[in-house]
């Protein structure tokens, strides 16, 4: 075996221009994760994250650093249209109306004026007097973005060859932009380091084996518009009365639950990352489609409904394992998952991805009795055998072979959790989710 550490063979290196970030522009509160392609000494490539405690075979690891620019002038963003730069501020009531005082156009300001006025009247009515009116400053756009006094050693400040000054804000593989980053440019640096000496390894040309990625200006996290759910009228008077009691909460809800077998079901298509491309959604900004931005919004919305059973479609297999299963378990759900049969090449990570259906159920209310997995490709092939002509078979298969799947679960109620009494302690429930395309 060749000792690559001591020989003249090429060591672990970053492939040419093979470093990118998961989201640009960066969004406040949304994790930035680099995608790095490394070239091993034997010429093969990997996306593994080698650390000082778990280095590569030739004893090399990656050193990560994140910086915030100190030279670029900080900008303010519209409080309503959070991705647009602000051009004006309501300086009459900035202290009273908090951070929602910046606007991108006169029309935006005019539409928000009524809100500013009502906030002012409300606060004056409570306090009896006005606070001092202090005009805002674009270099310090919101109280939320004021720097906080950091504890511990002072931040490291460096200057690059162009004279740009940067302050170090992180040393881990990932970084979550804060309110202090809003309006500023970020920079990510990854370096291949020799595990024996702790010094950067040179690349094939003898230069430092490091790669830099500079972002656009960090933007504040947009506020998703609230959903307005429609209540479907129930014609049966007894059921309508129970539903009304249940919505009231407290004793009335307990009485309603004990009077019948009530549970709620939510179905939701989460749009798998492998389908969320600019080719599919050309009018949507790339950062809106990034999984890092969407996943927290999806979790926030789905969890707020508090459904007893949640059926999700287009759940990417790695997202189920790394995100959905863990996060939904934390809020009291067990789950089952059925993936499709054909992977799709994406060019990121392992290069291939696949989605499927996930059904989550409250472990405090239900336990799993059985699950049925349906693959419609198999059903289509069986159906085509019953067709006569070759033309009919070809026509049917072209419409039916879409790799759609379904997941059916049979659940049993846990004691009194749903049924409200020992006489009805078993309940067969069927929840289903369909793979994208149905």
In short:
The protein is of the alpha+beta class and 438 residues long.
Write up what this structure looks like:
The chain starts with 12 loop residues before the first strand and ends with a strand. With 438 residues, the chain is of the alpha+beta class. The longest helix is centred in the first third of the chain and has 22 residues. The strands form six sheets. Strands 7-8-4-9-10 form a five-stranded antiparallel sheet, with no helix packed on it. A four-stranded mixed sheet has the order 11-12-16-13, covered by helices on one side. Strands 1-2-3 form a three-stranded antiparallel sheet, with no helix packed on it.
| Cross-sheet strand order for the largest sheet | 7-8-4-9-10
Shape: globular
How far apart, in Å, are the first and last alpha carbons? Answer: 54 Å
Number of discrete helical segments: 8
DSSP summary, beta strand count: 19
Give the fraction of residues assigned to helices: 10-25%
Mean pLDDT: 76
- Which runs of at least 5 residues are low in confidence (pLDDT < 50)? 1-9, 127-152, 418-431, 433-438
Structural class: alpha+beta
Tell me the major beta sheet.
5 strands, antiparallel
What does the radius of gyration come to? 28 Å
Strand content: 25-35%
Summarize the helix and strand pattern as letters: EEEEEEHEEEEHHEHHEHEEEEEHHEE
């Amino acid at each position: 075996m060749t000792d690559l550490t001591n020989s003249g063979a090429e060591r672990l290196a970053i492939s040419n221009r093979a470093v990118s970030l998961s989201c640009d522009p960066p969004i406040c509160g949304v994790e930035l994760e680099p995608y790095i392609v490394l070239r091993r000494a034997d010429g093969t490539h990997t996306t593994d994250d080698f650390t000082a405690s778990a280095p590569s075979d030739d004893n090399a690891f990656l050193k990560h650093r994140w910086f915030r620019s100190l030279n670029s002038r900080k900008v303010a963003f519209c409080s309503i249209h959070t991705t647009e730069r602000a051009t004006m501020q309501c300086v009459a009531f900035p202290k009273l109306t908090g951070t929602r005082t910046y606007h991108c156009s006169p029309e935006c300001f005019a539409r928000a004026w009524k809100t500013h006025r009502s906030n002012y009247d409300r606060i004056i009515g409570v306090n009896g007097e006005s606070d001092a009116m202090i005009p805002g400053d674009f270099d310090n756009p919101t109280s939320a973005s004021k720097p906080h006094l950091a504890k511990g050693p002072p931040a490291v400040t460096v200057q690059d060859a162009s004279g740009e000054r940067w302050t170090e804000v992180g040393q881990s593989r990932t970084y979550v932009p804060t309110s202090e980053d809003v309006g500023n440019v970020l920079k990510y640096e990854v370096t291949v380091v020799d595990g024996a000496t702790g010094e950067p390894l040179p690349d094939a040309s003898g230069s430092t084996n490091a790669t830099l990625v500079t972002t656009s200006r960090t933007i504040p996290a947009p506020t998703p518009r609230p959903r307005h759910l429609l209540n479907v009228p129930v014609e049966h008077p007894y059921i309508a009365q129970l539903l009304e009691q249940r919505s009231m909460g407290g004793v009335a809800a307990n009485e309603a639950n004990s009077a019948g077998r009530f549970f709620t079901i939510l179905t939701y298509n989460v749009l798998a990352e492998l389908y969320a491309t600019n080719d599919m959604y050309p009018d949507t900004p790339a950062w809106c489609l990034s999984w890092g931005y969407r996943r927290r919004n999806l979790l926030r919305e789905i969890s707020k409904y508090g459904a007893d059973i949640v059926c999700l479609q287009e759940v990417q297999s790695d997202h189920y394992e790394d995100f959905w299963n863990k996060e939904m378990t934390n809020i009291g759900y067990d789950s089952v998952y059925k993936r499709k049969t054909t992977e799709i090449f994406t060019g990121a990570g392992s290069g291939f991805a696949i989605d499927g259906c996930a059904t989550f159920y409250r472990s405090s209310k239900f336990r799993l009795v059985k699950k049925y997995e349906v693959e419609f490709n198999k059903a289509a092939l069986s159906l085509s055998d019953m067709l006569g002509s070759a033309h009919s078979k070809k026509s049917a298969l072209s419409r039916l072979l879409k790799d759609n799947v379904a997941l059916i679960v049979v659940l049993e109620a846990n004691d009194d959790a749903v049924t409200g009494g020992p006489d009805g302690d078993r309940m067969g429930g069927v929840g289903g989710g369909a793979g994208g395309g149905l």
